[in-house]
Amino acid sequence: xxxxxxxxxxxxxxxxxxxxxxxxxxxxxxxxxxxxxxxxxxxxxxxxxxxxxxxxxxxxxxxxxxxxxxxxxxxxxxxxxxxxxxxxxxxxxxxxxxxxxxxxxxxxxxxxxxxxxxxxxxxxxxxxxxxxxxxxxxxxxxxxxxxxxxxxxxxxxxxxxx
Amino acid sequence: xxxxxxxxxxxxxxxxxxxxxxxxxxxxxxxxxxxxxxxxxxxxxxxxxxxxxxxxxxxxxxxxxxxxxxxxxxxxxxxxxxxxxxxxxxxxxxxxxxxxxxxxxxxxxxxxxxxxxxxxxxxxxxxxxxxxxxxxxxxxxxxxxxxxxxxxxxxxxxxxxxxxxxxxxxxxxxxxxxxxxxxxxxxxxxxxxxxxxxxxxxxxxxxxxxxxxxxxxxxxxxxxxxxxxxxxxxxxxxxxxxxxxxxxxxxxxxxxxxxxxxxxxxxxxxxxxxxxxxxxxxxxxxxxxxxxxxxxxxxxxxxxxxxxxxxxxxxxxxxxxxxxx
Lengths: 162, 325
Fold this sequence. Notes:
The structure holds 2 protein chains of 2 kinds.
Chain A: E1 4-11, E2 14-21, H1 26-33, E3 52-55, E4 58-61, E5 74-76, H2 89-96, H3 106-119, H4 125-131, H5 143-157
Parallel strand pairs in A: 1-5
Antiparallel strand pairs in A: 1-2, 3-4, 3-5
Helix pairs in contact in A: 2-5
Chain B: E1 5-7, H1 12-19, E2 24-27, H2 31-38, E3 46-49, E4 58-61, E5 66-70, H3 75-79, H4 82-87, H5 89-96, H6 101-106, H7 109-114, H8 163-169, E6 173-177, E7 183-186, E8 209-216, E9 223-229, E10 240-248, E11 253-261, E12 268-269, H9 271-277, H10 284-294, H11 306-322
Parallel strand pairs in B: 1-3, 2-3
Antiparallel strand pairs in B: 4-5, 5-8, 6-7, 6-8, 9-10, 10-11, 11-12
Helix pairs in contact in B: 5-8, 9-10, 10-11
């Protein structure tokens, strides 16, 4: 019984070993300990989706997950989406469609959008609308975000990878 | 947050033993528990991570006569399961609209049944809420538009589970693990009203946990529906939810199960409504009358009288939807 625990996991493709306090959430570990500040803290209680990351390929609120729960798993944050070849198809679509205003919700929306595209590359606009209901945005009115994800669906149909 | 010990037992027996420890709290998805800890209304001494002890399988059992859902199955897994959709469509409808996609990817079906209420007085540390061992119910005279319209004399929480009304209507059985063998309990005996104990929502004692949900497969002729009303159409708690399961007979309904969620401290079956529906042909008039009967004993508070009308409408709609009318 201890109040910190040593855990290891893969973070954006890199093996990571770290000792974390058991009362820390995964978001605090990512931002404050591992210094990856792309993932945002909005509400801290699962309402806003700004902290969305992929855990074993599944989109979750990192603010509602204990850091110790990351043990043995594969984490992807917004910093892990780009490849040496450049930004991901959805990142490019967000830029091209002006789906970013203040930008605070953007990492969460891009992670959720990436998850949706990987789950179902043939996403309809209705699927997109339902799929991003856990991500709050106070600037864009969502329309450009939906257009960007729909454009990524189109690019993937032409052969790009999500 | 106060520091606590973190334990991840690998077996059910060990998990049950650890949950018997003083100040021990179980955690599966953790979405509700972590939130309560951040609100500082819950401070476990020992956090028992149940994911190593529980399973998340969704499978046919008993020679194909029943469906078994491991308590650690996420809401997303239940909502996306073709097996659940084929046999228990009202359960899929109930969980697929709960919370958000991200929370459904973390939150489990077992946790959904065991989550604590969302009453804002219960969730706010500054109020000495009776359910947290304090003096009274602040909702009685306070802001109570989202509160209970039944069984609300002592405490006016609504039970927050979406899955519960559907599981009640399908007469689910729960597996409870504890010291010794796993035992089975009808879901009808699981929830605890305020008259029995105002500080808990279910019968789980220290050292016990929900391990699985079992549902007997209904006959092919059985029809079911789940309906809910929310203020926002996404990412919101239901104001009222209704699950109905109808068994057609030669002349009218052989049997009807009607369950309400989000209107009382416990999810409720409605025996008077069910008795009325027996042997009836489900016309719009009969469905409307069933809605009236469902609210006969309602005792709304100052701000939530509108929920009584929502129940009337939603019971009618769910019955007609299940009947295909």
